[in-house]
Amino acid sequence: MAFPRARYPQLPAEIVSNPEIMGGRPCIAGTRIPADAIVAQIRAGLADADIFRHYPGLPVDGIEVVRTWALDQGLSLTPDEQSR
């Protein structure tokens, strides 16, 4: 079965910070998903598919945008040694 074409082009995901949303925590635009929550999932060693299952509202390019944002912020994405 074919999927219907989207009526509107999908905008690329971005990380935004708005004091009115989630207390200003950096979130993925259009969601209330904090970027640091996705960073924590990546550090915990979860596969992208598992992260998407935990956050069904996450845009398709959301994880990659969070990875880029985290590296720009100087955040490590390597698994935490304490979680092992």
What is the CA-based Rg, rounded? 14 Å
State the end-to-end distance: 43 Å
Q: How many E strands?
A: 2
Mean pLDDT: 88
Task: Tell me the strand percentage band.
Answer: under 5%
Which word captures the global form? globular
List the helices and strands in order: EEHHH
Mind telling me which CATH architecture of the domain at 15-72 this is?
Orthogonal Bundle
CATH top level label of the domain at 15-72: Mainly Alpha
- The third-level CATH topology of the domain at 15-72 is Arc Repressor Mutant, subunit A
Based on secondary structure, the structural category is mainly alpha
Characterize the largest beta sheet: strand count, sense, and whether it forms a barrel.
2 strands, antiparallel
DSSP helix fraction = 25-40%
Low-confidence stretches: none
CATH homologous superfamily annotation of the domain at 15-72? Winged helix-like DNA-binding domain superfamily/Winged helix DNA-binding domain
Please report the number of helical segments.
Answer: 3
Biggest sheet strand order reads 1-2
